[in-house]
Predict the structure.
Amino acid sequence: MDKTPDKPILVRIADKLKETQQEVDELVLQFSLGKAEARDKFEEIKTELKLKVAEFKQSAFVQHLSTITLDIKRRLEVLEQHLNLGQADTSLVFEEQKSKITHAIEQLEAQLKKLLPEEREYFEQELEKFKIKLEILRLWFSLKKIEVKASFKGHMKEARERIDKLVENARSAFASDKGDQHNFKHEIGLAYDHLKKAVHSLT
């Protein structure tokens, strides 16, 4: 987890959103060119999320013990268990694992609302990134191919422009602890909507 002390939380979130957009672009490109194996990528993103869960647990438990309930701890452990289910060699195994992991994430997100905003909001970006990549993998397992269409490019262009503007605004406004946080979070939500629309347009 990014622990840069002089970066306001919303700047870190904006940077994370930019990272997500770039990684989604790259993953779709790899699949469209036949340069990626779905089962290998599934293991890769599970490993990435396992590391983020471990970092989050360490940060939260060490720095804010009083904010962590036993239920949150249990749900983190359940998510870790599902991320360790092994390789998905068939579409059926993938769907079974996807269902368990998605349910574990949803249950965890519901409990994360009890945490301090800074702890919760940054980690939630990791969960959102994972879910978007998981949807790309679902499409690949289902369709056995991914074609980059004009609609995907259009949605990604809109997402990229919105995200670039968010990053710019975050750096200028929130670096000095100024700005409308509610509006900023609304814009983050809209940017994620564009990313999700782009992925859904691959069908």
Observations:
- Residues 117-143 form the longest helix (27 residues).
- The radius of gyration is 17 Å.
